[in-house]
Structure formats: C-alpha cells, structure tokens
Amino acid sequence: METTELDIQVKTLPEQPGVYQYYDKDDRILYVGKAKNLKKRVSSYFNREHDSHRIGVMVKKIKNIKHIVVDSEMDALLLENNLIKKLQPRFNIMLRDDKTYPWLCIKNERFPRVFLTRQVIKDGSEYYGPYPSIRTVKTLMGLIKGLYQLRTCNYDLSKTKIEQGKYKVCLEYHLGNCKGPCEDLQDEEEYLQQIQAIRNIVKGNLKDSLKDFRDQMSNLAEEMRFEEAEKVKRKITTLEKYQSKSTVVNPKISNVDVFSVVSDEGYGYVNFMQLSHGAIIRSHTIEMKKKLDESDLELLELGITEIRQRFESKSPEIYVPFEVEAGENVRVTVPKLGDKKAIVDLSTRNAKYFRMERFKQMKIVDPDRHTNRLMAQMKEDLRLNEEPRHIECFDNSNIQGSNPVAACVVFKNGKPSKKDYRKFNIKTVEGPDDFASMEEVVYRRYRRLLEEDEPLPQLVIVDGGKGQLSSGVTALERLGLRGKVPIIGIAKRLEELFYPGDQYPLYLDKKTETLKIIQQLRNEAHRFGITFHRNKRSKSAIGTELEEIAGIGEKTSIELLQHFRSITKVKKASLKELEDVIGISKANLVYKFYHNDQNET
C-alpha cells in the first residue's frame, strides 16, 4: 500500500501532550482535539472503523494535520478550549458555545471577596485560571475557605459605612467562617495578609503557607489537640498536591506575538505563537533553507517579517529568546523569568519538535538522503579523498598491565555494524604499553583483512593522541597501507583530531554531526573494550587457584565455588563432601592437591 503524505505526518508525530488540528484540502479547519499522547491519539483516527458517522466523514476529509506541543494534559485541555472558540471547527460540537472555563476572582474592593466566575471583567480585580472544570475551582475554593476566614457578603465595606453601623454580622460569623469585618471586628491588615496567602496558593507559591500550617499542626499536637492537628495535616496534603496555573493561558499576557528559532547545518525553523486576551490562539512553524549560512539572529528576523505579513499580525509587542530588530512600531521583549519566559520556552520546544519531525519524514520519504548528506559532510570536514562509508575505531583496555585487550568497532554509513566488531587479546606486549599494543592490534586487524581479501575501511580512528596515532601509522606502513587507508587520532581532553605528519591538531565545531559520529565511535570502542576486559578479568579471578590443579577446569571450579562459597572452605572440605559435588575422580584430585600441600609444609 502506497505511503501518503498524511501517513508520514501521523507516523512522525511526537509522543507528547498537545493539541492537534485537522484541515481539509482547501486548508479549512475541520476539528481541534487534545491528547495526552499526540501520536497515539491521532493514529487512532486512521487505524480503525468509527461507530460515529460524523467522525467517519471527517476522517475522509482530512488532508493535513497541525499540532502544538504543551507541558501537560491540563494545558492541552485549556488550549483546546481557546482554539475551538477562536477557529470554530465544523466537526467540534462541544465547547463551541460562549460558555468558557471558570476563573478564580479576587475582587477589587475593601476586604476583597474571593469567588469563582466565568466572566472576566476589567475592573481592576485579579483573575486566576482558567481551570479545566468547575470541580477544580470548587475544590480550590473549599481549600481556601477551610484555611482562611473570608467574607462572602457583597456589602460595600467602606470605612464610613462601617463606622455608621450600617451592617450586622450574619450566620457565617456565628459559624466561625467569617471574623465580622462588617462590624469592624476584624483588622483590614490581618484580612489582607490572608488575601496575600491566597494569591501565593493559586500561583503555586506554597512555601510560606505550608510552613505556617506545619507550625500550626506542631503546636496543636503539642497541646494534645490531635483531631484539629489531623485537619491541618489534611490541608497540608491538599496544598502539596495542588498544581500551579497553566502556562498556556495567562490573563496578564495580551495581544502578543511569540517567536523562537532552532537551526541545523542546512535549515532554520521559526515558530510563531499568537496570544490574544491571554490565550494562545495560533501556532505555526516555518522551515527556511539557509542560502548564505545565516545566523539564528538573521533567520529569526527574516521569519518574524514573513510570518507577521502572512498572518497580517498587528500585535504591538513580540516575545523572543534574544534581541532582534523588528521595526519601529513593535516593542521587543526578551523574557528572563516567569510566565513570559515559559511561553517563549514553549515556542522553542515546538520549533524543536517540528525540526525532529521533518528529519523523520525525510528518512521515510528518502532514507538515503540523510546518510548521503552526512557522508559528504564528513568527507569535507575531515579532508578525505572519499566518503567514509566504512570507519573502524580502535581502543586499548588494561589495568596496570593486567589482562591487556583491545577493541575494534565498525561503523557503516554512520551507523554501528556490530556483527563486524572485533576484540583482541594482546599477545606480543609485556606490561602496560599503549603504543605497542595499538601497533599490534592495528597490524593484526589489517593483515587479516588483506589475507582474506576483505574490503578496507575509508577511515581508521585510534583513541589517543600523537603517540597512539604514530603506532597505528607504523602498523599500516609495515603492511604497505600507509597513504592508502586514512588514519587519524582523537585525544579525549579537548577532542583534538591528529593527522599523520601534521604538527597541529584539527578542531571541529562541537555542534557538527561529524564530531558527534567520531565521539560515538570512540565511546562505543571504549564500551566494547571495557566489557571484554571485565569479562576476561572476572574469568581470571574465578579460575585462580582451582584451575592450577591438573584435571580441574573452569566448569568444575565454578561448581565448587557455588557450593562451598570460597576457596578456604574447599580446602577444608572432606573427601566425601567433595565427592558429593564433583564426583569421585575429581574429588580425589582436589583433596590430594590441598592435603599433600599441608603434609609438605
């Protein structure tokens, strides 16, 4: 079955929380949905039959998918609400009405009330949210009422009216839920301290409130008032579980464009998010091919101009990760902390995911394109005569000269070819001599390839500096391969690349894919060599004394150690005990070995 562009989009979606948008062939919005896992949720539309006729019709019309990645499932829920109300997709039958999610309001008045509302009125009051459900806000309100004694009446508690005795305390006062500010029974400063604590709680700054309640719980426990202490403990638990507000919606951020950029060697990716009345209403990422090796600053400035023209944006302010020129009538803000910084970070994350998806799509459509580009890049960066399709890397492993070994790992087309890995026991070198060991294994490796008429690599890498490189060159020279097989050394400390006959090392940009492939080769050779060395060392340790006994091999040694747990207990074992484990003939060998030794001493 032929893979369509839509199939590729679905396969390369991220497995992150977010919102997806379906568009038809005329680029008209069909549907907006939320997901805990974008790839899993969107895939479910295309890999099964749908009971709903409405959904079946919609799926047939889908020609393009867009998405926005967010931090959490709650953020996805809130963003879905914003986008549905803005875009009015024809297949969304929920959330298209004017009813919106609830907010928590701290009223702009003397002795402020705290209550939930669905309407945001610009009268100087503070609004927190929105929250994904009424239940969430009611839970929060219940928490606040349980922690603090606030008024619920809508009286105008001006100083004049209180002094005139206009009001009388109500039932809430007698129940202990209010301290009676209407009759001047509560100080305004004390009341405002409670309001400040509530602000901290809804913002997620719980440290001070938790400390106060923990102190309160300790005091109650010391006074043996355990039931009241338990109630305070439950409040603490609720506070600890409470999650701070979403970064997707913030009423203080209004009519702003947010831009970010990520780039690689060939392309730049600029993400755009548009915020209106504190809510994200649009997200879009463009791919820009580099023509003259433009910097991220140049790419971002080009992207801002293009996107604002395309979407006819008139927002007077933009948020960006670094200073840019955006024209005289645009205010540029580079946030460092808080919600504004969180929005810029969200934009950057979406740009990164877009870049990753483009790479994945490229590999599906043209799997050789990425490899060909990488090989051409490595040839240029490393000054080679041909592309290094076949690379081999060598590393030595020994501890104070014990059990010296070496490893050779092989990469083909930039990927590990584990079936071609080789390990070597050092045969001709005594003691810890890295240079001589390197010469031995390089010589043995390529003598074998020549004898078996196997293809030689287009690049050999030795782990180490000039000394190890010189040893590798000597080995190739002995085989008549110097100049025929390129060889370089990599020194770990500064990631210096050494070439034969060149006094000065080559330094590659830390971001280049070439250096990353070389580091991967070096690390893989080290891992493979260390594993081989440890295995050899452990076998050597197991065998020690028991394998010195004529007729006793590794398998019998392991059986004895598993049963007796130590060499000392094997020595003290009776002949009968040994016979029960390894049989009569081998038991006699072990028993005589140790008891003859004792007789001689």
Automatic annotation (TrEMBL):
Localization: Cytoplasm
Coiled-coil region(s): 203-230
Segments forming domain UVR: 207-242
Keywords: Coiled coil, Cytoplasm, DNA damage, DNA excision, DNA repair, Excision nuclease, SOS response
Positions of the GIY-YIG domain: 15-93
Residues of the UvrC family homology region profile domain: 266-471
Any single Pfam family the record assigns to this protein: UvrC_RNaseH
Family membership noted in the UniProt record: Belongs to the UvrC family.
Known function: The UvrABC repair system catalyzes the recognition and processing of DNA lesions. UvrC both incises the 5' and 3' sides of the lesion. The N-terminal half is responsible for the 3' incision and the C-terminal half is responsible for the 5' incision.
Description of how the protein assembles with itself and partners: Interacts with UvrB in an incision complex.
Protein name: UvrABC system protein C
Species this chain originates from: Psychroflexus longus
